[in-house]
Amino acid sequence: MSDVLLSVENLKTYFRTSRGIVKAVDGVSFTVEKGKTRALVGESGCGKSMTALSILQLVPEPAGYIDGGKIVFEGRDLLDLTWSDMRTVRGKDIGMIFQEPMTSLNPTFTIGSQLSEAMTIHGKDFGTAIERAVELLDLVGIKDARQTLRQYPHELSGGMRQRVMIAIALSNNPKLLIADEPTTALDVTVQAQILRLLKDLQERLGMAVLMITHNLGIVSEIADDVSVMYAGQVVEESATGALFSMPRHPYTQGLFASLPARNPRGQDLETLEGIVPDAAAWPSGCRFAERCKKKFDACSVPAPVVEGVRCHLMVSGGTGGVENGEWGVGNQPPNSPLTTPHSPDAPEAIDA
Amino acid sequence: MGNPLLPLQLWLDDHPVLQNWLYNLVPVLVIVLLALALRQGLKQPIWAEAARRIRRRPAALWAIGIIGFYGLIAFSDSIGLYDAKKQERVSLLDAISRREKERYYSAPLATMTTGEAFPKPLKEKHILGTDGKGDDVLYQTLKGARTAFIIGGLTSLLTIPVGIILGLLSGFYSGTKYKWIDDLITYIYTVISSIPSILLQIAFVMVLGKGIFQICIALGMARWVGLCRQVRGETLRHREREYVRGARALGVSTWGILTRHILPNLLPTVIIFTTLGISGLILSEAILSYLGVGVGDGVGSWGNMINASRDELAREPILWWNLASASTAMLGIVLAFNLLGDALRDAIDPRLRS
Questions:
Q1: Contact A105 B253 (CB under 8 A)
Q2: 8 A C-beta contact, residue A287 and residue A28
Q3: A101 preceded by cis ω (within 30°)?
Q4: More confidently predicted of A331 and B227
Q5: Quick check: bond before B7 cis, omega within 30?
Q6: What is d(CA A228, CA A238) in angstroms, rounded to the nearest whole number?
Q7: Do A92 and B261 lie within an 8 Å CB cutoff?
Q8: Pair B277, B156: CB distance under 8 Å
Q9: Average per-residue pLDDT in chain B?
Q10: Would you call A331 helix, strand, or coil by DSSP?
Q11: pLDDT confidence band for B352 (50 / 70 / 90)
């Protein structure tokens, strides 16, 4: 396929710890197509951030290391690149924004110098860089850009800082933007603005986005495709619309069932009991089995991936009634208003 | 020790007037540089904010005033004119406060010598009296200021680069692939810090000889360890910060991360350490001079004064003014630097700010 920009194949990122090898990312595969948005969704500790850091090879060394797999970006396997070639990829071909806008900017430098540094290290001269910095700040919706260039991070609000971070990430026109929970630390109203900004920029600049989030509301708003991660693996992979109208993996179903917007008022929210198992000792069988309401005998061996879903139920053909009716607690038919994706102009912070 | 600048020095000794102006240039240059650095620094909001906080603390203002006063004395002792008749350089301080030599001890403001069987009248009034050689105590005390500033400033100048570079490398590579760098540096400073610093300093003076510059090197050898340790700790902290990871994600090189991203954030630590360290350096110099391995004779030094007055307190009558003047002068500057250091720490220490 020619329109695949990034393809991660069977990525394994492990950590050596005193408790043994922690398999934070254990055989993750997904693709990001040109100009499209792929969301990686999952709870804390499922390995989604580590997947993102692995792509840029920023996994904390030497404890963390990439044990295997391929990260093919524009036909090149990033894992084969030299250290200095990788540095050109970082920031130039692939931009990244982080969760914490409050601490992601260096407190001792002005916005202008940090923005221009992003460009000068990739070969622009300072004058052009400053001119472009003004453009970029305009682009991310900061009024009075020239004034902002002279300000220090602590003089800006969280939303403004995240806009600056986005401007920095976009400064070299990257083909791929990795956004690691870009709105988690922000107020709900600011979240909506930032999301709309990202979506708008993506359409205008035609770049691909890898959105890492635990928030299904965000997924419905901006993602074209979704990979749901659980315990270091992708458990379900499909187009956003399909996932929202018919989640197939019991874990995904559980996530949707615990959304407030999908349940009738007055009824207790469904919860996924338990926590993600210890990454140093994943269960030998299906990793979700312990928390799964549809657990049956086959779950004691690793689940196969069928049609993008890592679940035994996909093989045994509807034993759990996955296909019909039973996907949510309220038993909403797939086309009821409650199941349609949230409208973009009324985003809600819905934590998975 | 071979001095590479010796030919230049000898040539300059033959041209005393030129030499004098060169010597005058140094303190002026130092002050201009300090003023420029201060002005540039205060443009940054972080330092401007620190200045505002310091301005609110009377103790800090007093400290700055006292340091300024000592600085003025040191400056007046650093500029001067060449007196062709006497064939010596006469500093501004010499011109103002040099008094005639008396025969023997004399009490402050006395008119006759003290402690002699037949007291003789003095040629001049001495506000703080004279010592056993008949030298004016006030003049000697004032002369000590310049030495104190040179010791504090020059030693800091020597230790800061060493401490920063080694601390930065050590902290940055700690626990990484290149952890041997950290291991090596940590090993060196652990060994040095396990030798009593006074012994280390005496050993260095024994090898290098007496003199201000030699003392600075000797003090610096023990000093950089503390700075290195602090810089290492701070680097470890900053290394894990989000903005460092952000810089990595932008493709900034290791060198860029060290110099442009971590180093500027270490500045508060370095400034606090240096300010608080100066008082320790002044005291150390006094101790070395007291032990007779200090700046040497002929250089104004409070340590030398205290050394000279070692036996005076045991005499009858008690000859207290020599010791008291030197100690008070030292106390004043040490206290001032400590107060300023504390105020600076409260104002800029990143660990005390949320």
A1: no
A2: no
A3: no
A4: B227
A5: no
A6: 9
A7: no
A8: yes
A9: 88
A10: coil
A11: low
B251 vs A62, A91, A103: nearest CB? A91
**Within an 8 Å CB–CB cutoff, is residue A81 touching chain B?**
no
Strand pairing class (B80-83; B88-91): antiparallel
Residue pair B163/B227 in contact by the 8 Å Cβ criterion: yes
Query: Residue holding tokens 């492990």?
Result: A14
Q: What is the pTM of this model?
A: 0.81
Chain B residues lying within 8 Å of A150, measured CB to CB: none
Contacts of B43 in chain A (CB under 8 A): none
Chain B interface residues (partner A, CB cutoff 8 A): 44-46, 175-177, 241-243, 245-253, 256, 260-261, 264-265, 267
Condensed to tens digits (0 to 9), the pLDDT of residues A212-268 reads 998 888 888 889 999 999 888 898 998 998 888 888 888 888 888 877 776 677 777
Backbone phi, then psi, for B203, in 5-degree steps? -60, -45
Close Cβ partners of B173 (under 8 Å, ≥ 6 residues apart)? B179, B181, B182
Interface touch A58/B245, C-beta < 8 Å: yes
Q: Which two tokens stand for residue A274?
A: 């338990």
With beta carbons under 8 A apart, name residues in chain A contacting B46.
107-108, 152
**Interval A73-104: pLDDT, tens:** 998 999 999 888 898 899 889 999 888 877 88
- Phi/psi of residue A71, each to 5°? -125, 90
Closest residue to A108, CB basis, from B248, B252, B265: B265
Can you tell me which residue has the tokens 């972080």? B46
Chain A, 169 to 198: residues with Cβ < 8 Å from chain B are none
- Residue B44: CB atoms within 10 A of its CB come to 16
Q: Look up residue A186 and give its DSSP letter.
A: S
Helices and strands, counts by H and E, chain A: 11, 12
CA angle A143, A149, A152 (to 5 degrees): 110
Could you write out the three-class secondary structure of chain B?
Answer: CCCCCHHHHHHHHHCHHHHHHHHHHHHHHHHHHHHHHHHHHHHCHHHHHHHHHHHCCHHHHHHHHHHHHHHHHHHHHHCEEEECCCCEEEEHHHHHHCCCCCCCCECCCCCECCCCCCCCECCCCCCCCECCCCCEHHHHHHHHHHHHHHHHHHHHHHHHHHHHHHHHHHHHHCCCCCHHHHHHHHHHHHHHHHCCHHHHHHHHHHHHCCCHHHHHHHHHHHHHHHHHHHHHHHHHHHHCCHHHHHHHHCCCCHHHHHHHHHHHHHHHHHHHHHHHHHHHHHHHHHHHHHCCCCCCCCCCCHHHHHHHCCCHHHCCCCCCHHHHHHHHHHHHHHHHHHHHHHHHHHHHCCCCCC
Mean pLDDT of B95-114: 80
A95: chain B residues, CB-CB within 8 Å: 249-250
How many beta-carbon pairs below 8 A join chains A and B? Answer: 74
Which residues are CB-contacts of A346 (< 8 A; sequence separation ≥ 6)?
A: none
Of residues B237 and B317, more confidently modeled: B237
Integer Cα distance of B7 and B215 in angstroms: 23
Dist CA B58 CA A233 (whole Å):
62
Per-residue burial over A303-334, b = 16 or more CB atoms within 10 Å of its CB, e = otherwise: bebeebbbbbbbeeeeebebeeeebbbeebee
Distance from C-alpha of A168 to C-alpha of A343, rounded to nearest angstrom: 29
